Amino acid sequence: TLFPYTTLFRSLAHQSGIPGGMSGVVASGVFGLVLTLIALQTSLRAAVAVHLVVDVVIFGVVAANVVYLG
């Protein structure tokens, strides 16, 4: 499966993302590994659903920070 490789490259892309730096790389890598485990133990559809929920939450947090903190 390609999940471990895509997880590695996507986590490295978070070096300049939100959150940035090493914490972003580690958080993204751990999240990718969790999604891999979900996909392998249940289904890819379940992993996509979890990713969608997390994306919506992250978007909400970032949008709220932009609106309230300027």
Structure explained in plain terms:
83% of the residues lie in helices and 0% in strands. The protein has three helices and no strands. The protein has helices at 3-13, 21-41, 44-69. It starts with a helix and ends with a helix. The mean pLDDT is 81.
What's the short version?
The chain has helices spanning 3-13, 21-41, 44-69. The protein is an all-alpha fold and 70 residues long.
Q: Secondary-structure blueprint of this entry?
A:
Blueprint: H1 3-13, H2 21-41, H3 44-69
Helix pairs in contact: 1-2, 2-3
What is the residue-mean pLDDT, rounded to a whole number? 81
Q: Unreliable segments (pLDDT under 50, ≥5 consecutive)?
A: none
Distance between the termini: 42 Å
Largest sheet: none
Extended strand count: 0
Order of helices and strands: HHH
Q: Which range does the strand content fall in?
A: under 5%
Count of helical stretches: 3
> What would you call the structural class?
mainly alpha
Notable features of this structure?
single chain; 70 residues; mainly alpha; 83% helix; flat
